[in-house]
Amino acid sequence: MAVPRRDMWHSRLVSVLKVLLPLIALVLLSTLFLFSRKINPEDAIPYASVNAENRLRDPKMTDAGFAGMTSDGSSLTIAADEAKPTAEGGALKLVQGLLQTPDGAKTELASAAVALDSAQKMIELTDGAELHASNGYVVQAQGFGVSTADTRVESRGPISAIGPGGQLTADHMVLSQQAAAGPYLLVFNGKVRLLYQPKR
Description:
The chain has two helices and 13 strands; from the N terminus they run ααβββββββββββββ.
């Protein structure tokens, strides 16, 4: 009995494809390896750019921050470029802070370094500090003590300030609430000298 011509053609096609398809697959695989980009095993992993030994020897945190509420309802936030642990609690460098009292007044703080004293509930702005009060005063001092328990910012030593009335110097400055549920005032005391500069 003769095999139909159509079946013969089909059998030959299958035989040819059995050889041809694996060859095509091999060609494709070889071109894949031929044109692929070479991987350099010495290339650094993006997230492994930190020297682990240095970090273990000198532990620190970058882009650190502190946020909290005082007992009288003021919000206090501190952001620092770098933070290091210390025996007292911690130290931060290149600091920006914001104190917002319940009456809506905002006081901006800045210093080169900050020390956190957990036991005393104080944040000590050191190495030259600046305070921008919402009433227009810009106060500079060697340092400020900022309480985390209640709303109180106190200068460490004498201050110099520029405000709506002119330039002034004083032995001491404190920003605090005057009484329970009372107003928040910026008070200069000690030897206060004002160079009055009226607006023109």
